[in-house]
Design goal:
The complex is a heterodimer of chains A (471) and B (198).
Chain A (H helix, E strand, L loop, with lengths): L5 H21 L3 E5 L9 H15 L3 E7 L6 E5 L3 E6 L3 E3 L2 E2 L7 H10 L4 E5 L4 H12 L3 E6 L8 H14 L4 E4 L2 H11 L6 E3 L21 E6 L8 H14 L3 E6 L5 H10 L6 E5 L6 H5 L4 E4 L8 H8 L3 E5 L13 E4 L3 H14 L5 H11 L2 H17 L5 H9 L5 H22 L14 H18 L1
Parallel strand pairs in A: 1-2, 1-7, 2-4, 7-8, 8-9, 9-10, 11-12, 11-14, 12-13, 14-15, 15-16
Antiparallel strand pairs in A: 3-4, 5-6
Helix pairs in contact in A: 2-13, 3-4, 7-8, 7-11, 14-15
Chain B lengths: L5 E5 L2 E8 L2 E8 L3 H23 L6 H17 L4 E9 L3 E8 L4 E7 L3 E10 L4 E9 L6 E2 L8 H16 L5 H4 L4 H8 L5
Antiparallel strand pairs in B: 1-2, 2-3, 3-4, 4-5, 5-6, 7-8, 8-9
The chains are: A alpha/beta (471), B alpha+beta (198).
Protein name (chain B): Os01g0166400 protein
GO biological process, one term (chain B): GPI anchor biosynthetic process
Pfam family, one (chain B): PIG-H
């Protein structure tokens, strides 16, 4: 038997330390995205998770998405780029949210975390039940957790107070949080009491390859204003009812295209009838996302009348198509576009009409192609993925804590809520011990990775060589 | 020609593969849980004791007796343990595949899938509200449901991969003989890398 000399031991230690440093520097993460909102449902959160996951896959990380079942879509699905999606067969209960069960999702969350060898759990959206429960279970099991908040929320009404308490519970023990705008960060810090140093600002982005301007520039003989949003109170549909007749009265050559559906559509139809604007206001109804670009490039100005927005992807898409934007000055909207691309107004009809007038005056100086190129530089999902990667690295560097160190953080959530939260976490920990006994970690089989195509070809060659040698 | 038998163990499952009489036989043996058997007997004794207690009482049968007997029956039903001794997959060249479940009580349940109906074997990731596991299933012509190869047991995926490969070779060559089906094939190597095919 060969003797291991002191020199050999030193070399081994040195090599091990080098290996550790290399691992720390270039380590790839295995990320589990959790939310109640994912395709085939459609919205800003769904798009954010999808595009972010695609770009993280391109950076070499492994990304898995966990959501609830959508109709018959249940089980494991693979979408573009090998993105694996777990449609867990929990039925949606209210507005695409699963029923809050607090503990019942622990077994499936634990199984997925172990079999996929997850290192970071990334939850999305403050009112996603599955997100809150998964983050709680992941923290109990000692995983690093990151949370992204996609919406602004109030402080005064009963629903907001309850939601803020739930958010406080989730963020009391979070590693890092992400908000999509500085206004959203301020809102989240105030609502949950999380330390501001833990909150990163990573904006949304737009798929500029999908939203390109029209090749030939539109003439200004007739000015078309495009509105695409859900026709609900939050999106300012009531504001539209006041603004559209006034703009049509003041500017005879203005025409409106309104895309989207919702409860307030009837009010807009009534407005059209009342002011005899059938030939100047075109109602498209619900617009599939694949057709949004063709609607946008038929207009000169994009009108956004939202009453509250953390970020606003719609105005990004419009600007990417070369449209000048008129928007209400609410939430994070002023942060989204440079001043020469957007005209901001208070959410009042008179101010909106003034802003539209100003936009019409600015129109001759707008070049859609130049605007598109600027958008391509300003907002890119690759940049968002790189920033999110930094957040993951910071989360991995945070210290490991056990239950006794985490309970005081929950106690600070409130006089009664703190004790209740501690009780919930203790029960969750005991449930984890029970699950470890019933189904040990060693018994859960890890999933083999599907390698990218080029790696597969290489491995095929290697295997052929090996077989050749075997023969 | 009898091939050398292959054996693999993992936890309570043991995988054996051998050829016999021209058939390719894959078997998964399951260790019997002594505690489960003991609990099963305890449940039966509990039911028996309740029935005797009701019958031996001097008073006539009352509602309490019925409730206690029903409860004991429910407990015995829950604790009842029908252990599976092994599950077998027989690949019969030219004919098809036969799925068998052998119980310790001696009962055998068989299901035959003709080769003409067999479309493709698939290693499926099965997600339930509680857990997630692998299962080997068969895609059949003109059927909208998958047929599970192992109905009562949940063997690990590393045991199912060789069975899946054998079935895949069987379906690829339309049920031809063993000598061709079991030959290593470069085409299978590519599929081999993607053994999580869904």
């Amino acid at each position: 038997m060969e003797n291991v000399t002191g020199e050999g031991i030193s070399d081994q230690i040195e090599r091990f330390q080098t290996q550790l440093q290399m691992d720390g520097r270039g380590r790839k993460h295995r990320i589990l995205m959790v939310s109640d909102f994912f395709f085939p449902n459609f919205g800003g959160v769904e798009s954010h998770i999808y595009y972010l996951s695609q770009c993280l896959l391109k950076l070499g990380h492994k990304v898995i998405v966990m959501t609830h079942a959508y109709g018959n879509r249940s089980g494991v699905r693979y979408v573009t780029g090998g993105l694996k999606v777990y449609y867990v067969p929990w039925k949606p209960f209210l507005m695409q949210n699963t029923l809050p069960t607090l503990f019942l999702t622990f077994p499936i969350v634990r199984t997925i975390l172990i079999r996929e060898k997850i290192s970071v759990v990334h939850g999305h959206q403050a009112f996603s039940t599955l997100c809150h429960e998964a983050l709680m279970h992941a923290r109990t099991m000692g995983y690093k957790v990151v949370f992204t908040d996609h919406s602004l929320y109030g402080f005064a009404d009963a629903g907001s107070i309850h939601m803020n308490k739930v958010l406080q519970f989730t963020l009391a023990d979070i590693d890092q949080a992400i908000c999509v705008s500085h206004t959203s960060k301020e809102n989240t810090v105030l609502r949950s009491g999380i330390s501001p140093e833990k909150v990163f600002m990573v904006p949304n982005a737009v798929d500029t390859a999908m939203f390109t301007p029209s090749p030939d520039r539109l003439s200004c003989d007739e000015i078309v204003i495009v509105v695409i949003s859900r026709l609900v109170y939050r999106k300012g549909a009531d504001l539209l009812v006041e603004v559209i007749p006034e703009v049509c009265r003041l500017f005879p050559k203005v025409r409106f295209i309104v895309g989207g559906d919702g409860p307030k559509r009837v009010r807009i139809e009534e407005m059209r009838e009342k002011f005899s604007l059938q030939d100047r206001v075109e109602m498209l109804g619900a617009v599939p996302h694949a057709q949004v670009r063709s609607v946008l490039i038929s207009g000169h100005i994009f009108l956004n009348s939202s009453l509250t927005e953390a970020f606003c992807i719609a105005i990004l898409e419009a600007a990417s198509c070369g449209l000048l934007t008129v928007s209400t000055r609410v939430g994070g909207v002023p942060e989204v576009l440079p001043d020469d691309m957007v005209v901001l107004a208070e959410p009042a009809p008179e101010d909106m009409v003034r802003a539209v007038r100003k936009a019409i005056d600015m129109l001759p100086g707008i070049d859609p192609q130049v605007m598109h190129l600027r958008m391509k530089k300003l907002y890119s999902w690759d940049d968002v993925a790189k920033r999110t990667e930094i957040v993951y690295d910071r989360a991995m560097q945070s210290p490991q804590t056990d239950l006794l160190e985490r309970l005081p953080r929950y106690l600070r959530c409130g006089a009664w809520a703190g004790k209740l939260f501690c009780l919930v976490m203790i029960i969750n920990y005991l449930l984890w011990c029970l699950l470890e006994y019933l189904q040990p970690t060693e018994g859960i089989e890890e999933v083999p990775d599907i390698r990218p195509v080029h790696a597969r070809l290489e491995s095929v060659d290697d295997t052929c060589e090996t077989q050749g040698k075997g023969i | 020609m009898k091939n050398r038998a292959v054996e693999m163990s993992s936890g309570v499952y043991t995988y054996k593969h051998h050829c016999e009489g021209g058939f390719d036989i894959h078997e998964i043996y399951i260790k019997r849980s002594k505690f489960r058997v003991l609990f099963s007997y305890v449940g039966e004794i509990f039911l028996f004791a309740n029935v005797l207690h009701a019958l031996l009482l001097k008073e006539s049968l009352c509602i309490n007796s019925f409730w206690s007997i029903s409860f004991a029956f429910a407990v015995a039903k829950c604790l009842k343990y029908k252990p599976v001794k092994k599950e077998s997959l027989l690949i019969m060249p030219t004919f098809g595949v036969q799925l068998e479940q052998h119980f310790w009580s001696g009962r055998v349940h068989r299901q035959f899938v003709p080769v003409g109906k067999l479309l493709k074997p698939v290693l499926n990731e099965h997600v339930t509200p509680i857990t997630c596991y692998w299962s080997l299933v068969l895609l059949l012509h003109s059927e909208d449901k998958l047929v599970r190869v192992f109905k009562k047991v949940y063997p690990p995926v590393k045991m199912m991969v060789p069975i899946w490969k054998a079935l895949d070779a069987f379906t690829n060559y339309g049920g031809m003989g063993n000598s061709v089906a079991l030959q290593p094939n470069p085409l299978l190597i590519n599929v081999e890398q993607g053994c999580t095919a869904t």
